[in-house]
Write a structure and sequence with these properties.
The chain is built from no helices and 6 strands. With 86 residues, it is mainly beta. The chain has a domain of 56 residues. The strands form 2 sheets. The chain has a 4-stranded antiparallel β-sheet, with no helix packed on it. Strands 2-3 form a two-stranded antiparallel ribbon. A hairpin with a 2-residue loop joins strand 2 and strand 3. The radius of gyration is 15 Å and the shape is elongated. The two termini are 24 Å apart.
Amino acid sequence: MACTKKKLIFPSKGDVPRHPLDKPEEGCYHLVRFIRSDCRLNIFGEMFSAPPETQYEYVVATIDVKEQKLKIFLDTIQVEEYQYQL
């Protein structure tokens, strides 16, 4: 990614695991979501309240595995943060 200067790595199609993987202990998951009129953010079926300024906007929801936090960004500004246990 450009902001972290890290190269993205994708597994080859032949390397699909046949068993559950261990939970990650570090790293981040970035999700892009559109916030509708109800200001609800759906992360893998779990609902979170989004700030009113995100209504009808796309946000980036970042799950920081090490910190166990969910951070919501509008453009490049963090607008909310939640505890997020994996």
